[in-house]
Hints:
Chain B has 280 residues and is of the alpha/beta class.
Amino acid sequence: MEKKLEDLQILVNNLTYHYPDGTIALKGVNLNIYSGEIVGIMGKNGAGKSTLIKTFNGLLKPTTGVVYIENDEVNNVLMSKLTKKVGIVFQNPDLQLFANTVEDEIRFSLKNLNFTKIELENQISLTLEKFKLKKFQNRTPFTLSGGEKKRLAIASIMCRNPEIIVFDEPTIGQDAEGVKFIRNLIKEKHSEGKTIIIVTHDIEFAIDNIPRTILMADGLIIADGPTNKILSQDQILNIGYLISPQLIILSKFLIDLKIKVPEDVYIKENMVQFLGSYFKDKMGITEGGKP
Amino acid sequence: MNLIEFQNFCFRYDHSEDFVLKDININIDSGKFILMCGITGSGKTSLVRAMNGLIPQFYHGEIKGNVLVKGKNTKNVPTSTLSRDVGLVFQNPENQLIAMNVEREIAFGPENIGVPWDEMDSRIKECIKITDIEHLRKKAPFEISGGEQQRVAIASILALQPEIIIFDEPTSLLDPKSAIQILNLLKKILLEKKVSTIIVIEHRLDIVLPLADEIILVDKGRILEQGEAHNVINGEKFLNSGVNIPKCVSVFQQLMNQNIFSGKLPISIEETKNLINSIK
Amino acid sequence: MEAFKFIQKKTIIHILDPRTKLLLAIIYSILAIIFEEIFILFFVFLSLFPFILAGQLFKKWIKSIRGMTFLFLLLIIFNTLFSTFSRSISMIIRIMIMVSSFSLFFLTVHPDDLMLSLLSLKVPYNIAFSFSLSFRFVPTIAIEAQNIIDAQKSRGYEMEQGGLISQARNLIPLLIPLIVCSLKRAFHIAESLDSRAFGSTKNRTYYYSIKYAKKDWLLTIILISLFIFGVIVKIFPEFLPTWFYWKLKV
């Protein structure tokens, strides 16, 4: 995707952040994120990832430097305006669920958005429908299963319809079904033109779903580029406490064997196709036959 | 000898209507790195709770059948006593570190069972050495990273010298490299015979499969399959169970479906490499 | 809370046995309660300074005193209204003595040693242990509380201004998750304690022990003499020169 200046949506310039206890979490971060991008933020715990995303919706005020969300400098606008634009979905749903019913949980998220009564009820019902929570409408959130709670927590941000969506470790502890749900949600929001930021350790998820990755270490951004490039460079991996996804390791191995591989075999379908024709070639089998 | 033996075991929590564990009949024997997997809500956590008596002693409910830990029935022997045979390390180290420094943390278990000072001291030294946390000895739990906290949690269980240690998603909160380091540490503990058997619940199969000797596949409260790791991953049940199939496995599975590949699916990157080499 | 959070240091005060420091806190508090005379209280207060300085706690201590400014203002207003200004001054010094001596204790006693000293005072192990456990989890729960505030603010939650009732109601979105999370945590901790042989035998052993050293005995003797002297002065006021009993006229 071509990046146009007028599509610039988040601009971070020379951002530093010092916690009251003296910890310096960000030491001069520069970053541009364009409208409609999907961006991953990786790096080991304590690298400053959470601190950075919390400056986007006003939870933390920059110590020095600036953060622009569209045309608003975060220091000069009300937090309510920022949280409307930037929705952060935190990892642990228990941190936010409190209401008597699932429906009320959604209602709470829509409270300060100036909806009319009809619009409000409409939006609640739409959200419940979309996240398959309708049947739990009148149940208390605490009796939901882990996966359902997670869905409700995500719904309680999505119903606010933010332009920029930030996911904090969305795939932790998720099985294939859970991961698929997150993947589809991201695809859908991407097609709606939303900007999506994903803080994650999950390299296999990142390589499949995130085109651009930022790597943070020690309060700084130390790499920013296509995810497959970031996740194949040893020095970057070492600093970020990361490892390569399996198919990148495999494609490097193939290259070492002097086998000519297409660049995009880090995607599963492409690897299947490539190895398929490679094997057929080597073993001289015809379509449909076993060696 | 069977370290843990489930005999037609069923369990229903007091607060729920359905049984979470149904007709469990498995044996855990010694010398193995056992991976336990299954989708969210399949009953993995309940199963490990039944292995050291937390079910039925801490979590009450309806029981059928028995669980024997080295011949001791978990219905009659308290968890605190069973903890000398079965150690349990949980997902979030934050909740299992109860002292204000690492050394005291490791001492806690041995103190509880009344180990004399000299032996306690040597156990602490040994556990610190195995888990490589000498530099953290006087640190408080909130001063160290997640990976380091998990190491401390492991050391503090090792100090009780149990025969089996069970890990319930020990790496899910860690970055990939720390996760691998922790899993390798578990393998090392097993190979150096500090424990007889290790059971690990993990969602990230890509990094844990290469270490596994045996897999127990859990689904809807039942044991779907138990067996040698290669055998299990080559089975339909595993591939359709909804767990996160590692990319290598899944690539070769698709090649198999296209009739291009036949043979055993590779469990790790190393095996994948060997496979490709063998074809070259 | 800051005024009572243990910091690891290696000063003479830190090395002292926790029981000595507890004795110090108790004796100073008793002295602060039995006397009302500004000068006497002031000297008692001054005598705490060497301890604060020796423990390298001056900055922390200033912070904790500053944190009580509001309380002091209230004391002055109410005491002056209902009693005398002079009385309010002695009240303030009194409170400073008690807070300082107890924060001296908490700032320099490792929470795990706190448990040991409770044990040596014949407090049952379970109670002493839960005491030290709560110390351990204060920072953890503080972080969790902050995360809850962040999560709720991220979905448009605002701390509205308003009457007492609406403000109290406004706390519900924070309190309920905090209670739920703390309960879950408590369960996890209990599970993990059981899995580590907690309470499996009556003959528990201890890796660390606390011991009364020479300097502890010395300080104990000094403290007890000070206490006896205080009591004598209280009973026979003529023991001290009259200017000690000077009072403000208001």
